[in-house]
Amino acid sequence: MIKNNKTKAVVLMLISSLSFAFMGALVKVVTDIPSFEKALFRNLISLIVVIMVLYYRKESPWGQKENRRYLIGRSIFGTIGLVTYFYSIDHLLLADASMFNRLSPFFVIIFAAIFLKEKIKRYQVLSVVVAFIGVLLIIKPGFNFGNYFNTFIGLLSGVSAGAAYIFVSYLGKKENAFIVVFYFSLISTIVTAIMTIPIFIMPTLLEFILLVGAGVFASVGQFTLTYAYKYAPAGEVSIYVYANIIFASILGLIFFSEMPDVFSFVGYLLIILAGYIIYKYGRTFANKVAEEENVEELNNVENKVV
């Protein structure tokens, strides 16, 4: 049995990353089903699971009234991110699609500066620049419009996920994590169901099983991620989400004979390095701020005593 909370969090993060990689692989296997329909299956399974969890916990799924517009905003951008991610899985290497989706932390930095007026720190600028160079190596700019469009959709999944995380960051501890998941699952199910109606293709029994499997893996990935952050601060374990790229690369090679070229591998490494920069220097900065706050609080206490 694992006793250390940090170790528990790391194990849960790795399980989450592996689950999402398997979700992506199952989505890619089902080639004849539209992206919206695949997203519908994924969302519907997650919705059923989160309703069961909330029922078991005897909690209302609707959350606090003042948070609902932010929950809806998170759900809208999350839905865009999910559908574009599924599209990119169908049209790009599995590892490339996963990597573009994992660019969300860097877009969070940019959006936080623009919309939340947060000051960008030097290490964050460095991480964004390194990640951008990594993206260029993966994209390998040329003159193939088809590749550009698919790449744009892949990048859009990262942009949308970044925007969704801005709402999640705002909600913070103001709202139950399961309610956030419920809103996202409910709204994304409704949206993808509407978009699926005119293009619906009846899946075969095997395709149905694979799509349900993708939904189950997505739910496992979501809930293990949620619980990982209960055992350790996000800043200490968030770097492990990039294990998803390693798992996706392995699954892509085994099941789809996908072998990224040297430029893509270097791009992956640069983006993971950029994530490590945020992880490493973000922790250092947070510790420094905490120390300064403790010193200031101690001084205030001493002044009151005097």
Automatic annotation (TrEMBL):
InterPro entries: EamA_dom, EmrE-like. Keywords: Membrane, Transmembrane, Transmembrane helix. SUPFAM superfamilies: Multidrug resistance efflux transporter EmrE. Pfam families: EamA. Its main location: membrane. The chain crosses the membrane at residues 9-27, 39-57, 69-87, 99-116, 123-143, 149-168, 180-202, 208-227, 239-256, 262-279. It is a multi-pass membrane protein. Residues 8-139, 152-279 form the EamA domain. One of its GO terms (cellular component) is membrane. The keyword Ribonucleoprotein does not apply. The keyword NADP does not apply. It is found in: Membrane. Coiled coil: none annotated. Belongs to the EamA transporter family. This is EamA domain-containing membrane protein RarD. The lineage of its organism: Bacteria, Bacillati, Bacillota, Clostridia, Lachnospirales.
